[in-house]
Each structure stands twice: as C-alpha cells, then as structure tokens.
Design brief:
transmembrane helix; transmembrane; mainly alpha; about 0% strand; membrane
Length: about 80
C-alpha cells in the first residue's frame, strides 16, 4: 500500500466515526428533548427540564473533546 491510500483510509474512518457519533448524540437528545417534552417548558421548568439541559451540556462538552482527540492525532504514514 502506498502512503496516500493509508491516509485516505484513516481520513475516511475518522470522518465516519465523527458523523456516526454526532448523529447518535443528536438522535438521543432529540428523543429525550422533543419526544418526552423536556426541551420546552410551559410556564416553569420542571426537574426533567433541568436534568435534560445538564445532560445536554455535559455530553456536548464530552462530545467536542472526543472529536478534538480524534482529529488531533497525526495521520499514520507507513
């Protein structure tokens, strides 16, 4: 294999991992936030709203840190 093929393979795997993990995170948050009604509140926020927003922010920070860790690695050159 040439270096170009390994770089392309590494780039594709990082891209697919980023898209799949990001989509899964959006799906989970959409299900709990919109599906169960925790994203919006009527007059006052409930306990479910607070838990959802804390979950959303904490997992969002971890998701960004995960993406930074994945893309910070150098590409393998054999």
């Amino acid at each position: 294999m040439s270096n170009m093929e390994q770089d392309a393979k590494d780039l594709l795997s990082r891209t697919i991992l980023t898209i799949s993990v990001g989509s899964l995170w959006l799906l989970i948050n959409s299900t709990f936030g919109l599906g169960f009604g925790w994203f919006f509140f009527d007059r006052r926020p409930t306990l479910g709203n607070y838990i959802f927003y804390v979950w959303f922010l904490v997992t969002g920070v971890f998701l960004v840190l995960f993406f930074i860790r994945i893309w910070k690695k150098k590409f393998k050159v054999d």
